[in-house]
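Pilot study result, target chain (468 residues):
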Amino acid sequence: MRTSGTWRKPLFTRARDSAGLRAAVARDGDERWSFQNPMKVLIIDGLHDSDRGGAGIVAGLVDSLYSVAKQLGKSVDLALVYRYSAADKRFRSAARHTRKSFPDVEIYSAPLRTFSRWRGLPKKLDFLFILLTACVSLVAPRLSRSGVVRAMQEADVVISKGGHFYRSGLRNPVAGFIDTLLSSYNLMMAIRLRKRLALVGHSVGPFSNVASRWLTGYAFKRASFVSTRESISKQILVEMGIAASRIAIVPDTAFALTPAPPEELSRLLDANGLSHARYAVVTPRYWDFPGSADPAERYTAYLHAMATLADHLLETALVDRVLLVRHNDGQHLDFEDDAKPIEAILEAMKQKQRAIVIRDDLSPTMQAALYGRAIMTLGTRMHSVIFAFVGGGPAVAVSYTHKTDGMMSMMNLEQLVLPIDSIDLAIAREMITNTVERRAAIVAQVAQKVADFREVITAALTEVVAPP
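Predicted structure:
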């Protein structure tokens, strides 16, 4: 795992006009790029492998880049930058699944020290130092001693992997501007270095302050390739002043990951007595219900609804077992630990003796295999739904943001979405029953959609690494 240094192979050369690469590729088409072999691609915006969705996005992206390079008759040298600094203990486990799956990918820590909103004068001074470091290095990159900046200088392409990073709930515009500047530092550095920058499969917004909205728009307008993973985010970017013709819709790259092989899944099923069981997967999450007058009451109601629907699956003999899966384990952020909502759901279930809690540190590829084998998945975690589709199974999604609604609409399965803030139990029971009864038809539809999505992802990445 690398925290500094440079690529292992020689520096690339690049041909471009004197103006450099800004937004000219999309506007004027007058840029000409030539990449040596192997191509050097730097992926930014890695979060943490405890965020299984983010790890799945990385897995699908890396698999696809290797596939595209092979189709082009080239090799590719990949590096991945995470959002935690080397001094942050969370970085130690940030890439644990990615390193195992892709040992040839260089791993970098964040170029800026990780900052939280700490109290006290020393922490405030530390924050000011981080902010000053960011500003100085953006003005004069040659002064930076960061290995990430050096790797970016050597890269042919910088790809911002998909996710839901570019949003802001801060209402103060000054705080919002600073927060967005630091969170988008790698984007800004790529722009400053005039790199070919590709934004692949993002969800964007909402923004609670004008400064964050403006700065995000500034970065996106200057990227060479811009894509969102659903139409709602595309519309938000259009409202920010980016031409609709410049914005592609590229499905979440987690759709391109390869599930774990059957023999590995069999070992997991055997260990939990599930080899011959008909089981359903349930993935809950903590949610703070922003904008609600009584978020605690809403959260309790959501957990009760999930317990009731888990019982429904068992009481109607749709399945033999319900798996409550710890999809995220919270090593990166405490509130992202799914263990707490799982405990609350298990406590509320009437059929708790037939529920099994899966606490294993499963990779995204193993989760995809496990969820795909299920009779159905009831998923609040959006990527648990995507993993179920990738693994070949059906799912009902519990939507907590527009990214879930957009993804399910792209799958033509918007009829299988439950809103987290108002789950109608009668409707939900009927939806779950119909999903199980129509499993074969839904699986066939899902398989075709996943295949189509993979073609779109491949075409988009081909455009990114082999521009016309």
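One observation from the pilot: Confidence is low (pLDDT under 50) at residues 1-32. A full batch analysis is planned for the follow-on phase.
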